[in-house]
Amino acid sequence: MSFTTLLVANRGEIARRVIRSAQDMGVRCVAVYVDADTGAPFVGEADEAVRLENSYLDAPGLLEAARATGAGAVHPGYGFLSENAGFASDVIEAGLAWVGPAPEAIEEMGDKLAARALAEQAQVPTLPGTDDPAAAASIGYPLLVKAAAGGGGKGMRVVESPDALEESLAAASREAKSGFGDDRVFLERCVSRARHIEIQILGDTHGNLVHLGERECSIQRRHQKILEESPAPRADAALRKAMGEAALRLARALGYRSAGTVEFLLDEETGEFFFLEVNTRLQVEHPVTELVTGIDLVREQLRIAAGEPLGYDQSDIRFQGAAIEARLYAEDPANDFLPATGTLAAFAPAQTPALRWDSGVVEGSVIGTDFDPLLAKVIAHATTRDEAAGRLALGLERTHLGGVTTNRDFLVATLRTPEFLAGDTTTDFITRAKPARAREPSDEERERLARIAALWVQGENRRDARVLAMAPSGWRNARLPDQKLVLELAGTSVDVRYRSLRDGSFRFDDGTTARIHAWSEDGIDAEIGGRRTWTRIRRAGDQLVVHGPHGDVSFTETPRFTLPGTEQTAGGFVAQMPGKVIELRVEVGDRVDAGDTLLVLEAMKMEHPLRTMDAGVVTEVLVAQGEQVEAGTLLLVVETAKDE
Q1: CA dist., res. 260 & res. 99, Å (int)
Q2: pLDDT at 544 over 80
């Protein structure tokens, strides 16, 4: 290895991932961090960490950190500056090894219009498209508006008719400018029933080039992936060969080195595939390729950056089994997958079945608005696809997780749908298969978990008691009413009543008996009605996160003496997440129709329009354009006939 110290110019789970492989290779690792990440796990796992004054986009600060710590190479991870050709050039000019492709390749592929042109030259099929809005009709509707300088769903809009084109172009352009510093957009044919398939490539500085098979990433929300797998469930040998050869033709035309991905769209109806883009970096979903090939992609990146040859060719690549990755996000699927914030009160990945967890958080981590709300990538590898799906679903279900709204239950539901298990995973999967956005516990599960929570709380009270701590729970010298705990779940109250018996057991008001075999701050071993389970429980203020057989249930403990609450404003529109009001379209007195956009909120570099469901009159506007608002802020009020 030509360098002994590596600067990891990223954060979170990808920083931890790079550090793990680099240290295994005997390379010392330097992390960088901003104040919001002071307590993040990756900071402590590096051999040394340097605080950045500004942000992870501070190129001069990153180069200074490399110089000060003696780093000989820079790994950019993904996102941030990973596809910034200028930063790559600066790293190389500073005499450091750049862990990635040549700056020229990054620049050419970073421009989606230039990438399309090169693909056509390399005889790789492309979708009909144009950068001239006046030519939209020649492409046909529906069509896609896409950012010329970015990806990840930012700056992308589906346009169903000419009436929506102008607004979609404007919104996509603003989003592209915010996300990538470039407001250029272009139009492309929208394939309604399609699969998103990508080919992993590796090239060294000696002219060797291979592909590592395909990944399917079709299940998406807001054009962003949430489930990825390898191999693609419907890809046969002929399609795999054709797509692999097309990817290598394009890679050769680029003179590509390092790890990269050539992405294609496969038309489900015709079987045709079309070029989408080249990602000149490591992909978020790279673990599924690692598991089916046994090749550590970060290790290969570091070897290539050090000038080493691959040492193998295409015929040496072997594929074993199936791997599926789920992206576990802090977001609310029931609220259009909007990002969620909060503190991870509980985060304990299941020990079995054995899964790969690539995560940037730990229990107690604060999930804010500064960064992407990805909590972890969870990956299952098995002999068959069905087994991998089953292991992944069970592992997610058995994970103790709470304090922040997540998409965990949605992922489990998706993995168990008949459509997913049949491999029917086109890009319209969510709207077509309609997996449950949230889990609804049964009455029996809700009642049982509430009783377990009540027994745990009485143990907590015994632990914290300052008077008569040695007395049994609920002890009285006269016959008094049962002990009582009122818990709330999704607006429904669960009233748990019980009394302690002389033998140390408990009896609930319906005669069911219970016994506590063990109690700890982390959970309780309780037997209720002859059924005994160890249940993990975590308290966060008045919240009790109780892990049941199908996932977690978060109860709110109702105080014994009710305090005055706040009233909801009729017709009020509140911010579902922290963000900035970038467009305010109404003022007091305006009449609005159902479906009208009232304002546009920008959060996490994505635009979120707020629309009215009913016609009415705007009676209050409580925010101004450009104002930063917190989640739950009342934005405006519309009085409708229904409100009256």
Answers
A1: 12
A2: yes
